[in-house]
User: What shape does this take?
Amino acid sequence: MLFSLLMACWMDSSTLPALNINVINFTNEYLEGDVEVRIYDSPLLCPDGLPASFFLVLPKSDDPLPVSVIFHSGAMAYSDYVEDASTFRASGRLLSEWGSSRVWETLNLSRKTLATAVTDLGYLPTALANAGVAQIYPTNCWGDLWHNGVEIQVNDAEREGFTRQGLDMAQFAVDILSSIELAESTGFSDVQEKLDTSTISMIGLGTGGQAIYELLAQGYTASAVAFDSAPASFAPYLDGDFASEQEALNRIFGSADLTTASLNVSALPSSTGWIWSNGDSQHPIEALELGAESVASIDGSWVEDQNAVGHVFSNQDYALAERVAQYILTGDSAAIEAVDTGGE
Assistant: This one.
């Protein structure tokens, strides 16, 4: 269904460009094996008219690998209203380049530093790769917290000058794992057989956690989910000195009750991890505490306060990243003992 929607509403299949697939080697000081990073153009277009990319991190393996879909942080933006949509010009976080750069930073393969207040050392993708987990990283260039779509939860495209499609991208990132048509249209077919789509987990970094709330609300399921520094609700932003955030939330959610787009414990799997900190540098603490209290009520869940100043901890702490990888695979969040190699 999503494939038909993509092709009908955004790109005519007769005018699709040549497939653009780039492959590089993934590197990190903790990496233990051969891992590729593949970059694809999706059929979705960013507000600047360029394709929105998605990334695949693929460890070398003779057997199909479990998959985790990982949603990056920072996808919240807006620009001035326009009187004529034809005069709109995308900039900042509404650019295709910004979305790709955000994933490059998550992988710690970027020379640029975006203003995201996140320390990205690439430890989470490394730990997942070492654990034999393939990873899909969709990009968000619509600044919509992964909430809006072309047919559902639509934004006021006439006034804003562009259509927000973060939810469509989140759905695409999951659908392409099993859709033959989507895979053929993007050049993804050759890797589908390398993925075990019976085991799909999701990880939300910062506001990327909203993508998981949205997907679960649309009926998608996951074997395990993990949130790192994700606000359980944006309702706390409606009070206090958050003028810029309030305007962005109004553009994204309109008149909708924010509680309906918040964390819904009843939709979560038993293996749900909630990493947060009482010293989070980006969100009102009550938005994080709410999630911690709610997820703690789930049998089998993992809730842990890092008790440190910062934001998105699993990508800057390798030991924590290993525990995230272990948890989504086994449901065990216990610390992993270091192996003594006999070195000094």
